Amino acid sequence: MTTLDHDHSDHGPAKGLSRWLFSTNHKDIGTLYLWFSLSMFFLGGLFAMVIRAELFQPGLQLVQPEFFNQMTTMHGLIMVFGAVMPAFVGLANWMIPLMIGAPDMALPRMNNLSFWILPFAFAMLVSTLFMEGGAPDFGWTFYAPLSTTYAPPSVTFFIFAVHIMGASSIMGAINVIATILNMRAPGMTWMKMPLFVWTWLITAFLLIAVMPVLAGVVTMMLMDIHFGTSFFSAAGGGSPLLFQHLFWFFGHPEVYIMILPAFGVVSAIIPAFARKKLFGYHSMVWATASIAVLSFIVWAHHMFTVGIPFAGELFFMASTMLIAVPTGVKVFNWVATMFHGSMTFETPMLFAIAFVVLFTIGGFSGLMLAVAPADFQYHDTYFVVAHFHYVLVPGAVFSIIAATYYWLPKWCGRMYNETLGKTHFWLSFIGVNVTFFPQHFIGLAGMPRRIPDYAVQFADFNMVSSIGAFFFGSSQLLFLFIIIHTIVAGKKAEAKPWEGAEGLEWTVPSPAPHHTFETPPDVK
Amino acid sequence: MSAEQTRQKNRNVVLYGIGTVVFMLLFVFFVLRPMYYLICEWTGITGSQFEASETKNLAIDENRAVKVQFLAMNNATMPWQFQPEQSQLTVKPGEVKQVYFYAKNNTTNDMVAQAVPSLSPFEATNYFIKTECFCFNSQPLAAGESVRMGLVFQIDPDLPAWVKTLSLTYTLFDITDSAGATAASFNRLALHNL
Amino acid sequence: MSARMQKSALAVLATYLCAPNLFAEFRVNMPEGVTRISEEVYSLHMLVFWVCVVIAIIVFGLMFYAIIKHRKSKGAVAKNFHESLKVEILWTAIPALIVFALGYRAFFTLEKMYDYDDSALTVEIVGYQWKWRYSYLMDDAAKEDSAQGTQFPVSFFSNLITPESQINNTEAKGEHYLLEVDEPLVLPVGSKVRFILTSADVIHSWWVPQLSVKKDAIPGIVNEAWTLIEKPGTYRGQCTELCGKGHGFMPVVVQAVSQTEFDQWMLGKQDEARQKASLNVKTWTMGELMETGERAYNTYCAACHQANGEGLPPAFPALKNSAIALGPVEAHLDIVINGSRVNPAMAAFGAQLSAAEIAAIITYERNAWGNNTGDMVTPQDVSNFGSSQ
């Protein structure tokens, strides 16, 4: 199918646009993924700003409810499939070959394809905003029949966009697996692989297992909408509940797809700045694997209120709570790594520490949500919104930002400005908490999610949350500035700019040359 | 490891990867989905029972009375008049009872409807034996036509003791556009395919 | 940000600065509620919360201790330990035990919630885009005889009554903004009430925090829930499953009253139903129809077709100057009574509203907003339309 090309090792990248369009180089494709993800992060963020602006005060001020629903839907889809997932694929592309001493990804041409279909998918998705009847307005979870019988005509484009995103993710995952299985340098044994490689390997398996489930679900929708079947319509003998079971069978592993690589990033950064080896490497690997396995048997905890029988509620409550154990092990390991280290607090470390604290807070609210009787009160309120934003924003997104600061010197050969980086951290840290912490309160007080307008008793904390969101949103512009500033005017970086960093990626010069590890390195 | 060997191994990963993807796709359609219906049928969850059972010769439990409530409702786009002739009945387990629902098509169009049953509490589903039910088939009605639709049922005396009231709700859906063909049969077929 | 928003943001800030004790009145936690179950859920919630707080203090305490003490700038030198089977087993086992204990505690609450013992009253709750319908099922033996045909069952829609002007900020918001309905669900205190829930279109979810009842209403599937309210009062909640553009505008209001008051209310409701039926046969004047029509239009139609009749095309077409409202009466009757054959958003209202309401709505639509057709549609016309086919 695809082959390795070794014959152009003597020349650099092609010039101009064709370098990017036809690139099969893992570094170039990684860069493309990362820029794409950043632009989607800003687009999805823009939609979030619209949402928070409307919720700044009770009453309808800026947008109508139907447009508000389009915003929540697009925000969710773009952040999940456009920002977080491609960012991790970009990191994988850049770092996995460097970390395992491989010259490139195993399947470079498929790599090119898997990136270049993404812009088309998102162009199609975003274009629905300008279609008659508007963009998808049924939430990123698109429950039938709201997303089938009652959907706007643009739903068909949404379905195709999801298909393309799924194909892209699957190709990316196959590539990661092939690279890790077959391309490791001699001596790079399983238990010597950096944790980022491990977490990505497990993530890639999750991806190939569940992206087809998502593809199957949207195909069933497509058939219901256009070919008269009734997979999800009660009228023809189908069931709207079937949709939810299938969706969450994909959806829960999907949640871990977005967080496992983050664990890997943090497990690289904390030891580097604590100048101490990662505590409990083996248990980290096992914890990651068990989280991945458990993720297949907890899906119905998203559905506690749909009328699950007693035994079912018990089972899904128990299995969900069980996930707290391996997750806890990870957090304890990170803390133990810091303990009796020799710590410094450069920007990547600050983001990694914030990750540990804030992701754990998200984990705590996750444990609370797992308790089925209490979930009847939390379900579909802002408490849930607060929960998953705590695990996704200061969780996944912070880890991506941390990774960017950590590896940016390797990518572009220049150091970012530490003062700016720290400023960016503190602005983000304050912003994220001001935005999402009050959402716990309004959720517990009874505000449902996905509503464009709310009762007056929720007004104060919504305003606080909106102010936090504007603050957080605008401080990300600083991130963009820092990246560009680094590329254009950053100080030259050494091959290993971090004193305590370990791993093969630091043995190559900064910036990493176009081709690395043409001859496999020696791994001790 | 030679380049050729690596290439071969990568090819294998792609093949296994594609194999897994195809397997998972088939798994969704032909395992997960039937499994959902199998579990529903086995436990009674959703309380929907579309298949006729044989009348059983059951001993009548004279000491027990189960209240059965009949509810009829229309899906929002369904314009027919639809109601039970009797809203409630007290039944002794084992007895064979017959009740009727009335439906009238007040529109100027010939239409086809499908009634979807749901029994609550669902734990009773497998003890509520329907030998005849208008929900087993779709119901066509010409413009202005009306019909009395029958339901013959009995309650299995093994019904858990805590169940004292049963609510049987029928939701009437308009399936004129997809009637007779794909929609209903597609799924029914799959239901039987378990 | 509009000037108005800025002004009120300043006003809010000013209020807090002048009266910091206002913070005390913020609702930041789950309500304890008014049922045994809700109290138990609350205590379970607090238990898990405090367990999390204790774990957080220990873990983050250790972490911040390390961050403060073991920093390079203080001359800390990294120790060389990176594994300890004992410690790792310990911190796998302890969380496992905590989780097990919490699960064990939750088991009993869950068991109580699933105790579907016999109840005195059954209420059917049906979700519609974007309102709830409540029907009381005749449930005692005495009523069974008269239940034959049940001419006057108590069944009604519960619609949001917050005026557009408050939503669009042209008028000050009331105390129960978005949480007020024309007809609340009235329930007796002290007796177990059984709910059966379903939906007529998309999935909705019925939630009253004070009762700790949240259950999805799913088309074609009936769900069951119950409550036993201990304290009279008015309890407010909302739909919690995204159900389209009106999702934020379909509140749930439960009014819990004593059994005697409830029985009286029930008799009154049955009388009302009888009267309502008589409205279908009385002779109406144009003025009465227009007046009733405007009210009913704003309750049932304005969410989509808008109060000014201009709709929100293309999903929700305009009625002002439209072919339907200005064309033949029969077609107009047909679409209101039987719904649209192509657009599922237009429900068949013949199954939802009385003949009088439909007549009034159609009369209003044909004469409002400059649609001056002069047509007057009577309840008899509506009934005849139904049976003449």
TrEMBL record, chain A:
GO cellular component: plasma membrane; respiratory chain complex IV
CDD domains xref list: Cyt_c_Oxidase_I
Places the protein is found: Cell membrane; Membrane
SUPFAM superfamilies: Cytochrome c oxidase subunit I-like (SSF81442)
GO biological process, one term: electron transport coupled proton transport
Organism: Reinekea marinisedimentorum
Protein name per Swiss-Prot or TrEMBL: Cytochrome c oxidase subunit 1
Predominant localisation class: membrane
Spans traversing the lipid bilayer: 32-53, 73-94, 115-135, 155-183, 195-223, 255-274, 286-308, 314-336, 348-372, 384-408, 429-447, 467-488
Gene3D superfamilies for this protein: Cytochrome c oxidase-like, subunit I domain
Entries under PROSITE patterns matching the protein: COX1 (PS50855), COX1_CUB (PS00077)
Function: Cytochrome c oxidase is the component of the respiratory chain that catalyzes the reduction of oxygen to water. Subunits 1-3 form the functional core of the enzyme complex. CO I is the catalytic subunit of the enzyme. Electrons originating in cytochrome c are transferred via the copper A center of subunit 2 and heme A of subunit 1 to the bimetallic center formed by heme A3 and copper B.
UniProtKB/TrEMBL annotation, chain B:
Protein name (database record): Cytochrome c oxidase assembly protein CtaG
Gene3D superfamilies: Ctag/Cox11 (2.60.370.10)
GO MF, any single term: copper ion binding
Family: Belongs to the COX11/CtaG family.
Biological role stated in the UniProt entry: Exerts its effect at some terminal stage of cytochrome c oxidase synthesis, probably by being involved in the insertion of the copper B into subunit I.
Keywords per UniProt: Copper, Membrane, Signal-anchor, Transmembrane, Transmembrane helix
Membrane topology (UniProt): Single-pass type II membrane protein
From TrEMBL, chain C:
Enzyme class: translocase
Major localisation: membrane
Keyword Transmembrane: yes
Subcellular localization(s) per the UniProt record: Cell membrane; Membrane
Known role: Subunits I and II form the functional core of the enzyme complex. Electrons originating in cytochrome c are transferred via heme a and Cu(A) to the binuclear center formed by heme a3 and Cu(B).
Residue ranges occupied by any Cytochrome oxidase subunit II transmembrane region profile domain in the UniProt entry: 22-117
Lineage, highest ranks first: Bacteria, Pseudomonadati, Pseudomonadota, Gammaproteobacteria, Oceanospirillales
Family, per entry: Belongs to the cytochrome c oxidase subunit 2 family.
GO molecular function: copper ion binding; cytochrome-c oxidase activity; heme binding; oxidoreductase activity
Domain of life: Bacteria
NCBIfam families the UniProt entry points to: CoxB (TIGR02866)
Ranges where the Cytochrome c domain occurs: 288-369
Cofactor: Cu cation
Reactions listed under catalytic activity: 4 Fe(II)-[cytochrome c] + O2 + 8 H(+)(in) = 4 Fe(III)-[cytochrome c] + 2 H2O + 4 H(+)(out)
Topological type in the membrane: Multi-pass membrane protein
Listed Pfam families: COX2 (PF00116), COX2_TM (PF02790), Cytochrome_CBB3 (PF13442)
Source organism per UniProt: Reinekea marinisedimentorum
The enzyme's E.C. designation: 7.1.1.9
Name of the protein described by the UniProt record: Cytochrome c oxidase subunit 2
Cited SUPFAM superfamilies: Cupredoxins, Cytochrome c, Cytochrome c oxidase subunit II-like, transmembrane region
Bilayer-crossing regions: 48-68, 89-107
Domain Cytochrome oxidase subunit II copper A binding: 118-268
Cofactor note: Binds a copper A center.
GO cellular component, one term: plasma membrane
GO biological process terms held by the UniProt record: ATP synthesis coupled electron transport
Keyword annotations: Copper, Electron transport, Heme, Iron, Membrane, Metal-binding, Respiratory chain, Translocase, Transmembrane, Transmembrane helix, Transport
